[in-house]
Design a protein that fits this description.
- About 3% of the residues have low confidence.
- This protein has one domain: Up-down Bundle (Growth Hormone, Chain: A).
- The chain is 82% helix and 2% strand.
- It has 388 residues and is mostly helical.
- The chain has a two-stranded antiparallel sheet with strand order 1-2.
- The longest helix is centred in the middle third of the chain and has 33 residues.
Length: 388
Amino acid sequence: MRKYGLILLALGLAGWIISYIHRMMVPPLLPMIMDELRVSNTQAGLLMSGFMISYAIAQIPAGYLSDKYGARKVVSLGIGAFSLATLLIGFSRSFEQFLILRILFGLFAGTYFPPITAAISGAFPTEKRGKAIGVFMSGTSIGTALAPIISVPIALLAGWRYAFIVLALPGFLIAAAFFLTLQDKTHEIREYKKGGGFISLKFLVACVVPFLGLATSMGFTTFLPLFLVNERGLSIEIAAVFSSLIPAIGFLGNIFGGFVADKFDKGLLVSAITLTSAILMSSTYFSSNRTILPVLLLFGFVNSLIPAPMISLTSQIIPERRRASALAFQNASTFIGASFGTGFGGYLLDKAGYMALFTFLTLNLMIGGILALMLKEKSVGGEQIPPS
């Protein structure tokens, strides 16, 4: 079981990395895409929010299908399909075609997170689950960091379309590896029919907090390259490097977040981290060109501490036989928030400029940090137990 758990974690990490490369290669390429397809800031936001809405819609049926039939087919077919959608984006000739393919990409990419996080959670004991989730979630930072480093040079060399075509190819290999490796627990599939719900006030709060957090994270990630190029006068190459360094340092935050999640009150941890991130987000706008990189790196590290304690806490709240469905519900609400952040963020940027955008992003984190206090774990006999 231990060997399989490590193999599953490694393969799950690879799938998460390629998923994030595919989704996050759009922001650093936006200056080229916007110029060629004559796309406005609002439309640029729609390229991300359109993906995230469809991604959110796919979460709940993906969790249901995984709980009922097993993760093997859901995961492998989903990765293969979203890689095909990424490949076809390279052949799009208009904003409308690009948007439709991004929506299709979101639908298929949305089938990955619920079953794979449930499978990883089930493969590790509670005392090691936070660390395992932290390692898995580091794929968010790795993929986001690699996206501009890989896609921008390809785009500068051969055009932005070739970036999508080339980077789609590894996804097909990962899909095949999952199909040959992933094991479904048939007894848990049978147990699905026993029923049982997972909705509670604490669970709903556990959905709202990441809703607000990802609204900020994705809004910030989407428009940061434009902010650095248009507002701060940096080149697209330097903006790509800055955009890569943030998730690169976030990799360390993901791992460290997994360790602290296993040692401290997860609810209070999420609250403190989110409020600290709000301060750093506000500081980013007011930083000079000399000091902005250290602030961005600190934000990248601190903000990336959140996923491991948040997902680990949610996994503790929910019965195992409903875990994929519950994580799907949570992730769906999270990416609706991400869509809100990019869509409304682009609108604010068009109408009121960057100060309005950064104010919006900061307020999301402040509200989320305060709400997270409701997720405080109860202490009984010196041990922490999750909120119910």
